[in-house]
Amino acid sequence: MDGVVDPIDVDSIDLPHDYLEVTEELGSGFTVDDKLSILHPKVVSRDFRQHQIDLEAIHGKEGVYVRQGKLMFSEPSVDSSYVSFSSLVCWGLENSGKKIFWNTRNSGTWSIVVTNCSDVWAFYDDMTSSEYLHGLLLREFDCPVLTGENWPRVEYRDVLLHSIGL
User: Fold this and answer.
1) Residues of the chain above pLDDT 70, percent
2) In what order do the strands lie in the sheet containing 70-71?
């Protein structure tokens, strides 16, 4: 398949600098509004392959085609994008199973992919991790996967720090 890429080795690559700064500043992983958890770097490294396996089990294949934010069930079109699960690294989880990934398909870039792990996908190619979180939490944009009528709250400014067992 033309879109399949070699699996990544998270331990052999450097995670995005801005993400490391945010997790260092806010502690060992953190949760926003008891809804969205940003994973500690050690958890990212430890569990990244399991998130890939989960997507493969859900979809029954190694990747999917997405067009305009929606999973394609028919043949791909010229304006569709292929998402190879082996190039995704999960760094955020929402309490209903939605996930935030980095897409490492293009060497040296950490584009952001957000999905409900089923049929809705959002891509943020021109944002860093911290820019994405800042914009999401301050509602500078709506993410079709995560943003709801009442979340994130516009007045919300607190982050709940939590300790994780590593």
Assistant:
1) 82
2) 70-71, 63-67, 81-84
